[in-house]
Amino acid sequence: MRKIIITLLGCLFMLPIFSQNKIIGFVKDMASSKPLPFATILINNSISVITDAEGKFEITLTNETKEVKVSYLGFETQKISLTPQSDFYQINLNPKVEILDEVTVYARDNAALRILKKAVAKQDENDPDKVVNNYRYDAYEKILVTANLDSVNQWVNQYKPLSEKDTLSKTDSVDFQLINSLKKNHLYISEKISTVNFTKKSGRTENIKAYRMGGFKEPVYEVLAIDLLSLSWYKPRYTLLGTEYRNSFSPQGLKDYFFQITDTVMIENRPGYVIDFKPRKANMPGGMQGTLFIDTQSLALQKVIIQVDGGISIKATQDFTYIKDENIWFPTSKELIIRQGDANQRIELLGGGVSYKPEEEADGLKSDAIKSPTKLVYFTAKTTVDRLEVNQLADLNPSAYDIVIDKNAINLSDSEWQKLRPEPETSRDVETYRVLDSLVSAEKVEKKINLARKLLAGWYPTKYVDWDLRTLVKYNVFEGFRTGLGFLTNDTFSKRFRLEGYGVYGFKDTSVKYSFGGAVKVFPETNTWAGINWVDDLQEVGNTVYLTDQRIFSLFEPRLFNIELFYDTQILSAFVEHDFSPQLISKFQVSTGDFFTKFDYTYQNDGKSFNFYQLGTITWSFQYNPFSRFVKTNRGKLEVKQGFPKFSLQLTKSIDGFLSGDFNFFKAEGRILHEIKHLDNTTTTFLLEAGWGTGDIPITHLYHASPNNPTDSRIMKRFSVTGRNSFETMFFNEFFSDKYAAFHVKHKLNRFNITKKFRPELILISRAAIGDVANTQKHIGIDFKSLQDGFLESGFELNKLYKGFGLSFFYRYGPNHLPNFDDNLSFKFTYYFSFGL
């Protein structure tokens, strides 16, 4: 768009002889007079340009060009004769009225379908990631929230007070403020320059050399997690703005979409089919429509245009260039444009995390023909590829990170940016950066974002210390209310050394608990820390805690309320944290400590009775997240997108006589977490947990399978908080195992749109567990059962009924079904914190 404006201004100073060779114009819908973005303009049967978000185009012609052909999905193609006297054209296309015969549309001899079947069968021969051994290119990405200047000026010319005495309403005044701003600057701007390296062995790595977000001294790195547009069209699913859609150019797409040949075209002197596609079913989940340009010889993609219409309108284009030596079409540029849509239909963004539906327009404008200027505003993200090298990299050693941000990438001067930027910076760009820098600084936006990051992780940041919100207040039946304060030094204190600790007090057991420790970063490149820690606190009997688990913060911990059995610990630990790669992290820990239960319990071993014992243990814990995306920043490693499945493994060895230990045992536990997001925005989650122990294991270190049912015979007395991954009908302390496996399945449905504000969410859940325990006679003072016959429960959660609160119902059945019917039921409330989305 900026190039068009600059070119038009330049035309004012050109000789008249050249002006007749340049034309500009708009393509609109004949019926509604609305612009048609991404309409295709053909000259000599070859693509010349694609109209922009406002349906505008600009073409430089030769003297021999007498006509152009304009096409758009769902509209009749039109040929336009050109005359020397005209340099501006408004082209109105008629909507195409299609009466489709299902027999014709879906017949096996459909020409478009035959071509697509052959093209899909040859995907592996045309996908650059599978054909070439390596490639490298430079990419420039520019993101704007802006409006076309011509449209802004047109709005100003239309919207004039009826007389000098007229006063503007509050709404009108805001509109004019927006318009005045759009004349001078965009509403938002961001730029990124990077080098992308790819090898078949190591995959793709992006090295960001320059990164700038308007107003921010340091970019919000979490934005990198959003897949604005997929990198490849040769996969079963395609991503637009973080949401996955069914790819029409895939085996499943052949079944889900209708295809129709509308034209042929020449791109880079190679003929191509123009094939429109749209979903077979009007409301198909994850469906989109658009146009595929397919090489008639290689059947590779030459160009793709797609659109999704709803409460917002999403348009995207993907261009390819032909590499003769490799006989492949390689993606070279992509553009995404998002604007307010006309359809009164809810649309999901960011993987379903945000849902948008347009509000009904309010009255109050002076003329129905004059729309709010907010409708002129659109979001655009364009990426162009330069200096492409294919199969020319003799020695390439890509980083283990998905994205690496150079140390100086966010601190480049304007002159350095000018050298790297492949296109000139416009006056609107410059003014936008100035306005945003002033606005973000005045509103202290960066400070607020940092505060939000910390709060979501359970920290309240100050200059040198972050205070632990998890220690402020908790409740359980043994301690009653537990209050205190914890801390962790931050990077301002030191980037190579950290101190942490907490102190809390239980009002029911009238006992103080505390912890203190510190660590030194030994090798920053591998995030290797070495440290020591002392803890004097309570632990839940039978609970498993992975040393590599990420910190989780919630307003309250559901299971904690009803836990009855605790044991006291006084443990001194020395540890080493080390990242073998961004995806594989580990923690090695050697501990010695004293343990004694807070209930009547004795463990008998080798003729001795223990109600107090010491353990000397060695623990090695691993977490492997192969499908998550990691960014290397000046602050260190950052996980910007979670991928599934995730794997955890922990090995613990207690040695008799080691660090005064009393028992000899070995434990191994593992966990696999997998989540599948379906195209209809429903989600299925699988959790598999297992543990195996052998040797002399006291009850404190057995497995309890995560029960969450208070021990009371009356169902309403058991009404409490539903856990996240716990057995809701399994009573506390009912089962303990030295070997077990548990499997959880959850299926979350879309929220029910009952009213605008009342949108409950249903989750269907089933759980199963099996296990065993040896030498039960060694455990004196507590009765428990074995899981050798298995355990089954199923139920549902109806969440977000009011302010994050909901209800749950579960039923226990199978081998451990109880004689009293009420004892098999669980009725509780749920709570999921949200921001009202």
How would you describe this protein?
This protein has 837 residues and is mainly beta. It folds into 4 domains: 2-93, Carboxypeptidase-like, regulatory domain (Immunoglobulin-like, Sandwich), CATH 2.60.40.1120; 102-161 and 169-442, no CATH class; 451-526, no CATH class; 540-831, Beta Barrel (Porin), CATH 2.40.160. Helix content is 12%, strand content 45%. It contains 12 helices and 47 strands. β16 and β17 (312-323) form a beta hairpin. The chain is elongated, with a radius of gyration of 32 Å. The two termini are 34 Å apart. The model is unreliable at 1-20, 99-109 and 361-370 (pLDDT under 50).
What assembly state would you assign to the polypeptide chains in this entry? single chain
Distance between the termini: 34 Å
Helix content: 10-25%
Mean pLDDT equals 87
Estimated share of beta-strand residues: 35-45%
The tally of strands reads 47
Low-confidence regions: 1-20, 99-109, 361-370
Tag the structure with descriptive keywords.
13-stranded mixed sheet, 837 residues, mainly beta, 12 helices, Immunoglobulin-like
Question: Topology, please?
Answer:
Elements (H helix, E strand, L loop, with lengths): L1 H10 L4 H4 L2 E8 L10 E4 L2 E5 L5 E5 L6 E5 L6 E4 L6 E6 L8 H4 L5 H11 L1 H4 L1 H4 L2 E13 L2 H10 L11 H15 L3 E12 L3 E11 L23 E4 L2 E4 L4 H6 E11 L2 E10 L9 E7 L5 E9 L2 E12 L4 E13 L6 E3 L4 E3 L21 E13 L12 E3 L8 H7 L6 H16 L2 H12 L2 E3 L3 E4 L4 E4 L3 E10 L7 E10 L4 E13 L4 E13 L25 E14 L4 E14 L4 E4 L2 E3 L1 E13 L4 E5 L2 E6 L4 E9 L10 E13 L5 E13 L11 E3 L17 E5 L7 E10 L12 E12 L6 E2 L10 E12 L2 E9 L11 E7 L6
Parallel strand pairs: 1-7, 10-22, 22-35, 40-41
Antiparallel strand pairs: 1-4, 2-3, 2-5, 5-6, 8-9, 8-21, 9-10, 11-12, 13-14, 14-15, 15-16, 16-17, 17-18, 18-21, 19-20, 23-24, 24-26, 25-26, 26-27, 27-28, 28-29, 29-30, 30-31, 31-34, 32-33, 32-44, 34-37, 35-36, 37-38, 38-39, 39-42, 42-43, 43-45, 45-46, 46-47
